[in-house]
Design goal:
heterodimer; A: 78 residues; mainly alpha; 2 helices; 0% strand; B: 629 residues; Sodium/glucose cotransporter; 2 domains
Amino acid sequence: MHGSGIPIWFFIGVLLLIYGSMILGYGVYEWVDVAYYGGQYPAGVQLTSLHTPVWWGGILTALGLLYVLKFRPGQAKK
Amino acid sequence: MFGLVPAFTAAGFFSPHPALLAFSAEPLAHLSSLDIAVIAIYFAMVLWIGFYLKGRSNTSEEFFMAGREMTAWIAGLSFVSANLGSLELMGWAGSAYQYGILATHWYWVGAIPAMLFLGLVMMPFYYVSKTHSVPGYLNLRYGEHARILAAFSFALEMILMSGVNMFAMAVVMKVVLGWDITFSILVSAAAVTLYVALGGLRSAIFNEVLQFVLIWGGALLVPILGMIQAGGIGGLKTKIIANMHSDSYFHLWRDTGSFAANPMGVHWTGIVFGLGFAISFGYWTTDFLVVQRVLAARNLRAARMAPIIGSFFKMAVPFIVILPGLLGLVLLQNPDGSRRQLVGEDVVAACSVASATGKVEDPAACSGAMTSKTNLSAEAQQKVLSGAGGMELHSYNQALPLMMVRYLGPGLLGLGITALIAGFMSGMAGNISAFSTVWTYDIYKPLINKKGSDSHYVAVGRMAIVIGVGVSIGAGYLVQHAHGIMDYVQALFSIFIAPLLATILLGMFWKRATRIAGFLGLLFGIVFSVSLFVWVHINPAKLAYVALSPDAKPMAENVFRALWACLFTAIVIFLVSMFTKPRPVEELDGLVYGATVLPKEESVPFYKNEWVWAGLVVVIFAALNILFW
């Protein structure tokens, strides 16, 4: 679906970028809070030591950025 | 997509089940502000897409067929995503919890061969005939009567399916978040109505691709983290065998030599011929919900490639659906550290908790249900009856949400919930957009107003979306009285889809099939299928005749009923055709194999050739079945 409009992949990139940034940001905050300020991980959540929000948020951010740049309006293949 | 066990009781199609909604236990999770922001952004995005595309959905070709300009990738992802609704995500995770890896048959043998057949063999006829819908093809091939019959049955099916989707979503929101069921239904219905009514099929497809990505982004973490905690595939196997005292949970085919040897109670003949042929081919090649996505492709090659691209992703879906169910078998725990055992929804309903007292409302009924329908220990039953904190029962359908809550913290939980909502909305949007097209082209236009303007039909389509969603909401409330979310839907597939498959296949590949034969075959096939359904549900003992074994379980009924209905329809069409006059061959150009000269496609490099990719799918498909034999 390229046509004359904004490619669908651009929308996907924007959403992934927003989500990735939010989750990555929270993950870093949580890690720092627990490590240095005596914070606690969310109750009941397993495997918190893996810091999933950090790496998963990072992956989403990277993918989102890639799609936004590659498919930004005016750059997509016609 | 296919549902599970038809469990309407002998007393009627919709046995009252007032306690099904009595989820008075505490919700599984509380959303943080970050989670709510994630969900809100998703809704804003889908609505923005709807408004953005409104200006590109002015003609009927744009509104109903997305301008026929989708690439193979977009059509292919949309093709799979429209099928990846609520039933997929929740229902099959619950089925995997109950039956193990056998549930994967509904993704592999129950999908892949049919998807390849659609792309490589059937798509040229759908595409070359330029039909707007599957009933439209029946009109071209068999005439008006067959079209009207198929259109009405399809419209009914879509409305009910949409209701099922809405209800499933609302139950998840109720269980996981404590949201009111009516609130969830109204919000999701309003969003889907708005973006599909504004942007038509283009908006539905656009959002389905977006939703497909979100589903993976939100759900993929559960199996990844679950496998880490279970100790990999080896650890998972060891734990399941220790808990369940059986390794049948890991075998696709080995234990299907008899009905009694596997937890699902099916035989391999039912899986191969009933599921792999009658149900699967019926759904993937004739259900307009999915075929419509491929018809929107920009050229024949894209239309042929779309199902093949979709089949790669379809083969991967068990990773985010089946695997979490299996992991739930060994990882879900009660607060006291014991293994949490999920149960059927009837048991959950029997053990509903009174919100005022926090105790089970009807201890006698609850105790009876737990004793007769579960293998909970006496100690666990006592804890449930006493209302011990965190010991309330959860149904199989809640396996996936429970696993999400186990691993996903703030933000990620919002993404996981968004994945579920996206799944529900993509399925619902698929149903509604297909319903709108069939209603407008195959019911309204031929029966009510043949001479409307193009803009008039677009307006009718938009109105059909609004009214269709309204009726679906009513259907959603009906579904809550059925015995399990998926039960109800499977019956629809085998009742409508199997006769339709035989009708279309014979029409597409047998020049001799006549107009009246097509109509009568479809009509009597549906009547036959309904009769089998009613027969078994009035007297469940008759299942032994339908499924050819006294050991057969309800799952077997679906696949065998579909098979018999398909064969019955084919026999009717054959016999009637032999005694009626066929259409001249020249009238069948573009409709029937052997009477159609397909357009020559331009030569492409091997890596763009659909046959090469289909070959790769076959190799992977075979390898997976051997690996998990």
